[in-house]
Amino acid sequence: MPESLAAPVTDALRRLRKSSGVTLAFGGVVQYGRGLRLTQFVGHTVGALDGVAVDVGHGLGGKVVAMNRPMVVDDYLATPQITHRYNAVIATEGLRAMAAAPVIVDGVPVAVIYGALHSDDRLGDRALDALAGEARTLEQQIVATRASVEAVAVQPGAEALRIRLTEAYARLRGLADSVDDAEVAAAIGKITDGLLDADPRPDRAPVALTRREQDVLALAALGYPNARIAASLGIGLQTAKGYLKCAMRKLGATSRLEAVTIARRSGVLP
Predict the structure, then answer these.
(1) What count of Cα atoms within 13 Å lies in the side-chain half-sphere of residue 237?
(2) 75 by DSSP, 3-state: which?
(3) Order of all β-strands in the sheet with 24-31
(4) Exposed/middle/buried for 189, CB within 10 Å: 0-12, 13-18, 19+?
């Protein structure tokens, strides 16, 4: 596993096992053109899965990579939903119920994380929600790390400056919404517009976000969770989620941090 992914994946697996009740959390990186290799394990294992190469379309992980979405099976060895190329190692590990989720960046799966049980119990909603949540967290970490590397490569200290600009941008937009004087609000609006990149990257098509979508995205760029975004803007939680979802769709993003990165490159966030 690439060094840049090994630690975040292991941390995610530790959190998954602790929060979901699975007896084994494991995962690996999708190797371009060669499927998935399982290398990270947290929990009870006899080592049969360590280093196993999972081909795209086969087994649970291979099907998840092919479909680009999570999947759960109640009994790995008997389910008709997957191929059974890896039944021998699964049986050796004594695993039954299992779920897997892809970690997707720029629309491409880069890793897969699993949660499994050594019993006849089914994986409940808590376990499935935890798995999906950890996959999204990994996506955000990968995108954020990549954005930071790109910023530092261009100019040392650029990322810190960008964070301060984003904070100023978000606060000014909030101030513009809170004042009753239309002229003052318009003047603040001109200041916030001046913080945007007037010459976005040429490889990014123009993106038209509504004012509220920009507000939500600006707060997401500061790391605010949805509840805090909603409270900051004085809107409902579901409304905030809806604005963020629309912004992500317009930007072609699969995670909020990917949306922030694309928005910055497109000149709609500082």
Answers:
(1) 4
(2) coil
(3) 53-54, 35-43, 24-31, 108-116, 98-105, 71-73
(4) middle
The answer to whether the beta carbons of residues 266 and 207 sit under 8 Å apart is yes
More confident residue, 192 or 85: 85
| C-alpha to C-alpha distance for 109 and 106, rounded to whole angstroms | 8
CA atoms within 13 A on the CB side of 16: 37
Residue 149 falls inside a structural domain? no
Residues 250-270 have pLDDT tens digits of: 888 877 778 887 888 788 887
Is residue 17 located within the same domain as residue 59?
Answer: yes
Whether 134 and 165 map to the same domain: the answer is no
Residues 161 and 252 in one domain: yes
Q: At residue 186, what are phi and psi to the nearest 5 degrees?
A: -65, -40
Q: Quote the pTM value.
A: 0.59
